[in-house]
């Protein structure tokens, strides 16, 4: 049985998905952990069916048969990513729409210019901190830090708390042995921010969510922020790092960008098509026996959204052009990402600032030697060691 982690870590994921399609079709069985199987939805058409059919496929993990029967235990490292949460990600229908609206309203109130300037300040501070060395790791020193500090600031957390949140989220998303501890730390930080903003309101997302009539009580506000920040972590760290990786390893891509034939926005969309940072997104749970992509899906089965695999679906990939935003990196249907605009501002500012402040930056290892973070969900470089001319004294 193919492991989801092996697919995420594959040197050539498109070839790995092609082999799986050849054997099983656009919907294939994979292992999440030993003894825990799920369906990986790799077909573009099938993925749209799953995300748009709430009457057949639920986001509520309480419908997961392997969770109900004890195969997946409460201490499983899968729980932080796939277990039930009392937030927008675990709801369907009217309840989901009611929990989503506060997020849309809070994000709609974000000052986009202030966000861009704030992110630029974060980026400049980080780059200034390592520029005098003439070398850096653009993942560890930059890409994993920028989005979390930006999201922390949006939610009213200071820089130190943003770093603590980053450490907790890195444990959580790995779905390894420390995922449960990461989840606990993460929720503690968010809970403390909510308590602080109840005492001292401010112009931030946390205050807006506390005041929103669509949310009632501490738990709903906390879990809404958990969902928002977790989704931002998944997408932004990988999105920034993958775009920087592409600029560093693909001369044709970089030349088109520097020559003005490709904008940063086009570059970001190319990455979402070719190597989306969230490769596998959990999850959906079948509400009834049904058929999908030639497979018999049983009630209670778990389905994983193969966002990266859908981009390589041979039925649609031949028509992809640069700038086409029909990719599924944001998912689709009622649960599609509500934070596309702030996410794009953060990612674009992060890439722009590197290009501005680090002219002549180059990778110091071969493209084949760029490692990946060991996670079944997110496909992200673990390191991008670079060198660049040191600024004049």
* Distance between the first and last residues' Cα: 57 Å
Radius of gyration: 21 Å
Number of separate strands: 10
One letter per element, helices H and strands E, the order comes to HHEEHEHHHHEHHHHHHHHEEEEHHEE
Chain-averaged pLDDT = 89
CATH fold topology: Cytochrome p450
What is the helix content? 40-55%
| CATH uppermost class | Mainly Alpha
Strand order of the largest sheet: 1-2-8-5-3
List the main descriptive attributes of the protein structure presented here.
single chain, 393 residues, alpha+beta, Cytochrome p450, five-stranded mixed beta sheet, three-stranded antiparallel beta sheet, 17 helices, 10 strands, 52% helix, globular, Cyt_P450_B, Cytochrome P450, Cyt_P450_sf
């Amino acid at each position: 049985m193919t492991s989801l982690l092996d697919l995420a870590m594959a040197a050539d994921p498109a070839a790995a998905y092609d082999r799986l399609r050849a054997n099983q079709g656009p919907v294939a069985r994979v292992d999440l952990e030993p003894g825990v199987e799920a369906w990986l939805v790799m077909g573009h058409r099938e993925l749209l069916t799953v995300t748009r059919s709430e009457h057949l496929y639920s986001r509520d993990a309480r419908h997961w048969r392997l969770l109900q029967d004890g195969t997946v235990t409460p201490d499983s490292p899968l729980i932080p990513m796939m277990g039930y949460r009392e937030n927008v990600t675990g709801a369907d229908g009217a309840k989901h729409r009611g929990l989503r609206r506060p997020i849309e309203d809070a994000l709609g109130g974000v000052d986009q210019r202030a966000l861009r300037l704030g992110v630029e300040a974060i980026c400049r501070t980080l780059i200034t901190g390592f520029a005098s060395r003439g070398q850096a790791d653009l993942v560890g020193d930059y890409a994993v830090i920028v989005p979390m500090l930006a999201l922390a600031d949006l939610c009213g957390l200071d820089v130190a708390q943003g770093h603590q949140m980053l450490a907790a989220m890195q444990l959580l998303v790995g779905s390894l042995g420390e995922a449960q501890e990461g989840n606990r730390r993460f929720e503690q930080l968010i809970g403390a921010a909510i308590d602080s903003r109840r005492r001292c309101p401010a112009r931030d997302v946390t205050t807006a969510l506390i005041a929103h009539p669509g949310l009632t009580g501490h738990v709903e506000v906390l879990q809404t922020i958990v969902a928002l920040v977790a989704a931002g972590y998944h997408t932004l760290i990988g999105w920034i790092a993958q775009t920087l990786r592409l600029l560093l390893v693909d001369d044709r891509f970089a030349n088109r960008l520097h020559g003005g034939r490709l904008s940063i926005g086009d570059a970001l969309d190319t990455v979402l098509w070719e190597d989306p940072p969230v490769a596998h997104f959990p999850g959906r749970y079948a509400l009834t026996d049904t058929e999908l992509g030639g497979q018999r899906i049983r009630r209670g089965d778990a389905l994983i959204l193969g966002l990266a695999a859908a981009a390589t679906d041979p039925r649609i990939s031949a028509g992809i052009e640069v700038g086409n935003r029909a990719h599924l990196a944001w998912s689709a249907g009622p649960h599609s990402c509500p934070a596309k605009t702030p996410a794009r501002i953060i990612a674009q500012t992060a890439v722009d600032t590197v290009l501005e402040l680090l002219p002549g930056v180059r990778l110091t290892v071969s493209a084949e030697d760029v490692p990946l973070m060991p996670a079944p969900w997110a496909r992200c470089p673990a390191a991008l060691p670079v060198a660049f001319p040191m600024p004049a004294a």
